[in-house]
Design brief:
The chain has one domain: Rossmann fold (3-Layer(aba) Sandwich). It contains eleven helices and seven strands. The protein starts with a strand and ends with a helix. It binds adenosine-5'-triphosphate (ATP) and magnesium ion (MG). The site of magnesium ion (MG) has 5 residues, from helix 1.
Length: 270
């Protein structure tokens, strides 16, 4: 059975793409899953890391899948990534922003276009991961409508937590109108540092998550700020391939995160 997970936060640069890529890596290397990453961000960062030959404006991409006039079948937009067991739907750069804009004027079904597209290829993958853009417009709305689970990628700090309310409100609206089954499966802290201030914001975040109608687990340990994380990503290497003990430990952390996420989704089913 395919599970679809969206990685979200409307705040930019908090680590959505980093988390998506590293969870995807853990899924193929340690969980032995067949994975599809959908790049739902016009910035195309996930595409750049995983399928660098498919950047920019393309004949077939998520943009042309979502665009009503083009309506490319998603199976035709899928490309193989640099990693075995992992395929990608490239974003299509600015065309994706235009496609999202064109959905705004569509009356019926605009929130469900991605969900319908994923349904066409579901039996081919165990796991579909959607890298969301830093916004709350039609692209994340399509991702949240298509997803079984949502992972909040969070940074610690006042401004970061201030923005969380808007994200949670949007999720609530999606649960009410377009995807009653959507569950926030976890929150992952990225780019943390070991300081007193961070400890404070970590417990603030934990208490916000605990007080939700359906409490959301905050995964441990947080991902620390470390240059090798960005370096591995920029060179298209998995953390398990990076060759340092710290990178291997972090890879295993992502393996555990995925175990927790999948367990949480299974619990929801039964
Ligand atoms: N824990 C970390 N330590 C060091 N660098 C990091 C860490 N997490 C992410 N980065 C770097 O910070 C930048 C932003 O991360 P990333 O692209 O994953 O965020 P994002 O939420 O996807 O951003 P956007 O909202 O623009 O899509 C990237 O250059 C990434 O390599
Ligand atoms: Mg990103």
């Amino acid at each position: 059975m395919t599970r679809t997970i969206a990685f979200a936060n409307q705040k930019g640069g908090v680590g959505k793409t980093t988390t998506t890529v590293n969870i995807a890596r853990a899924a193929i290397t340690d969980h032995g899953l067949k994975v599809l990453v959908i790049d739902a961000d016009p910035q195309g960062n996930a595409t750049k890391v995983l399928a660098p030959d498919h950047q920019g404006s393309l004949e077939r991409s998520l943009a042309t899948v979502l665009d009503k006039a083009k309506s490319t079948p998603i199976s035709e937009a899928i490309v193989a990534s640099e990693w075995d067991g992992l395929d990608v739907v490239p974003a299509g750069s600015d065309d994706l922003a235009d496609a999202a804009q064109s959905l705004v004027t569509m009356k019926a079904g605009r929130e469900s276009r991605l969900k319908k597209a994923i349904a066409e290829i579901e039996d081919r993958y165990d796991l579909v991961l959607i890298d969301c853009p830093p916004s709350l417009d039609q692209l994340p709305i399509n991702a949240f409508t298509a997803a079984d689970g949502l992972v909040v990628v969070a940074e610690l700090g006042q401004f970061a937590l201030d923005g969380l309310d808007r994200l949670l409100d949007t999720i609530e609206i999606i649960q009410e109108y377009t995807n009653a089954d959507l569950k926030i499966v976890a929150a992952i802290i990225n780019d943390a540092q070991q300081t007193k201030r961070m400890e404070h914001w970590r417990s603030e975040l934990a208490s916000i998550l605990e007080q939700l109608p359906e409490p959301v687990p905050l995964l441990d340990p947080p991902v620390q700020r470390a240059t090798f994380i960005a370096e591995a990503q920029e060179s298209g290497k998995g953390l398990d391939e990076w060759g340092t003990p710290k990178a291997s430990v972090l890879h295993q952390t992502y393996v555990q995160y995925l175990t927790t996420i999948l367990t949480s989704l299974k619990a929801e089913e039964s």
